[in-house]
Design a protein that fits this description.
By secondary structure, the chain is of the alpha+beta class. The protein is 29% helix and 24% strand. Residues 1-10 have low confidence and may be disordered.
Amino acid sequence: MSVMVDNSELQSDIRSAIFKQREMLTSMISRAMRKLSHDCVDLMHNREAMEARLTKALDEIPYCKHLYVMNIDGIQTVDNITRTGADHAHYGRDRSKRPYMLGVLASGNFRLSEAYISKNSKRPSLTAIRVIRDSNSKHVGFLGADYDLRELPATQGLYEEKQDWQQIKGDPSIRGNLFEQQRVDSQLDSRLDDAIPLLTELMMHHGVFHSKIHFSSSRATIWQVDNPFGYRLLGFEDLIDPNTCLAYPHRDYMKQATVPPETLNPIFEMFRELRFADDNIYLRSGSINICNGMVALNFSCDGSHYIRYDEFLKNGIEFWFGTAG
C-alpha cells in the first residue's frame, strides 16, 4: 500500500539522482585534475609556462570550460584558459570568497562544488577545485576547473518519479481563512454531464493523454500525443460542445497507458463528487495522466495531492475529507 509523503520528502528521489550524477562526475574529473596539479607545482612562479600547460590540459580535463590556477590566498595568478583562447579579465581575481572555495582545504585535496549561478554568464555551473601540493605535501596553490551544466554529459537516465501518495500543503493564509470562504457554482459545475463524457472521449479515442479540469474557471487543459510539448486550452463552450472532438484526429488508446480506459469516466465522476461534497473544502482542479497513472488534486484549502489512479478510485469521499487539508 502506498504511504503519504509531505513536502520535506518530495525531493528525495531528485536528490538521490543528483547525488549519483555528482559521484560519476567526480570520478570522471578528479583523476585528470590530480595529474595536472602535480605538473603545476614547478610552474607556480612562471605564468607563461603555466598558461601553456593549462592550454594543453584542456584536452585532458573532460568537458571543462575554464582552467585557472590560484595562489594559497585564492588570488588567480594566470588568465582564464578557455577553448577559444585566454580570457585576460580574470588575472588577479580574488576567488577566495566564492562558494566553491569555502572550506575547500578542510574537505581534502579535491572538491566538486554544489551547482551555482555563475557570476558572469548567469548560467548554472559547477567548479572543481584541486589543492596543489609540492613533494613535501605543502599547500602551494589551487587548480580550478569551471563547468557549464548544459555542456556536461548525461551519465544516467531520467530519475524515476515516485508514485506514492504525496500531499503538499499550500499557502497558509488560504488555509487560515478556509471556513470564511464558500464554493460558488461555476458555469462548468452545471454542465459536467456534458463535459465529463467529452473529456473521456478525447482521452480514449483522440490521443489526449493528460487532462486537467479547472472547475472554478470553467476550463480544461489537455496534452495530445500529436503535440506532446504544448497544451491546448479548452474553454467552457469547448467543453460542452461534442463538435470539439472534430478538432482532434482519431487515435487509438495509447499503448503506453497504464490507466485502463474503462476507469477514465469513474475518475472524472470522482472529481465531480469531490467538487460538490462540501461547501468549504472542495476540489478546485483535478487531472489524470494515463501514461504515468497519476491523479493530481488541488483543493480550496490550497492543499495538493498526487496519487495513483487505482488508489484514488479505491478511496471513498470520507477518506478525502478526513485528509484534504
